[in-house]
Amino acid sequence: MNIGEAASRAGLPAKTIRYYEEIGLVSPPRDANGYRRFGEKEVHKLAFLARARGLGFSIEDCRMLLSLYEDRARASAEVRALAQRHAREIDARIAQLEQMRATLGELIHACAGDDRPDCPILRDLAGR
Amino acid sequence: MNIGEAASRAGLPAKTIRYYEEIGLVSPPRDANGYRRFGEKEVHKLAFLARARGLGFSIEDCRMLLSLYEDRARASAEVRALAQRHAREIDARIAQLEQMRATLGELIHACAGDDRPDCPILRDLAGR
DNA sequence: CCTTGACCTTCCTATGACTGGAACCCTTAT
DNA sequence: ATAAGGGTTCCAGTCATAGGAAGGTCAAGG
């Protein structure tokens, strides 16, 4: 199948698939006309990537996960460690966003939000 | 004062301040030797930017906030609306990260993480 | 006076993970 | 013959910086 069908089956834009080829995540063979040819295996790999990216793994993590996936002898501990490291990063990002959100919430709460110019949000930004 | 001191007072890298000048967020005058000269007002503005960025506002939001800040007649409602829009975006990002985190947590939980090759994480990524 | 070291300047490149667009080729149907 | 709807490459842009090279400026010390 061509890139368009592979894209819709894997749930990735064709552009992204070309990019993944460029950085060596996939290497579909070419037809005589130069078109990339995708088999089930490649589509499966692309879907794997789409899901891993959907879970927020970086491209380099995905590269690692793919190679672990293709290594039938690897220990699940390695995958688990990678996932745990990633989970901790997500936790940190959530914590940071929640901190922001809390501050923002206080400011919004304190601001009358009417047509008068006094604004605690700007007052806070201007210097606490 | 020169850029170095302005940077440490505002809590921003000098590189970032040059960038902010490039995109028109600040316009410090120059000394005869070509050095940027920062007064209290500019440093204050930079600190304002640092705090707004720290709350996750985009550069364009910051530009807006700055111009609202400098408009003594603006209604606080406008600032409040901007902050609320931003808060909703943060909420959405938190929700997305929490969704990821939950899935990841389940997978990690299901994975023995030992030296055997069977791994629910990879099995899930490979296709549910 | 000269040098040293800490500043400052501009300009160019890179990041991550794509996205958009131009210019051009291939295939199929009308 | 042509038009539509694929495909191809290559270049530029995104966001908000960070890193580094090459060179100008300044105050202090020998």
Uncertain segments of chain A:
none
The tally of helices of chain A reads 6
Structural class by helix and strand composition of chain A: mainly alpha
Instruction: Output the radius of gyration of chain A.
Output: 23 Å
Question: How would you state the average pLDDT of chain A, rounded?
Answer: 94
Helix content of chain A: 55-70%
How many E strands of chain A? 0
Largest interface (CB < 8 Å): A-B, 53 and 52 residues
Q: How would a crystallographer describe the biggest sheet of chain A?
A: none
Quaternary: homodimer
Q: What separation lies between the terminal Cα atoms of chain A?
A: 61 Å
Name the descriptors.
homodimer, 128 residues, 6 helices, DNA-binding
Textual characterization of the structure:
Two copies of one chain form a homodimer. In chain A, helix 1 (3-10) packs across helix 3 (40-54) and helix 3 packs across helix 4 (59-70). The first copy, chain A, is 66% helix and 0% strand. The first copy, chain A, contains six helices and no strands. The longest helix of chain A is centred in the C-terminal third of the chain and has 35 residues, at 76-110. Chain A has helices spanning 3-10, 14-22, 40-54, 59-70, 76-110, 120-125. The first copy, chain A, starts with a helix and ends with a helix. Chain A is elongated. The first copy, chain A, has 128 residues and is mainly alpha-helical. The first copy, chain A, binds a DNA duplex (30 and 30 nucleotides) through helix 2.
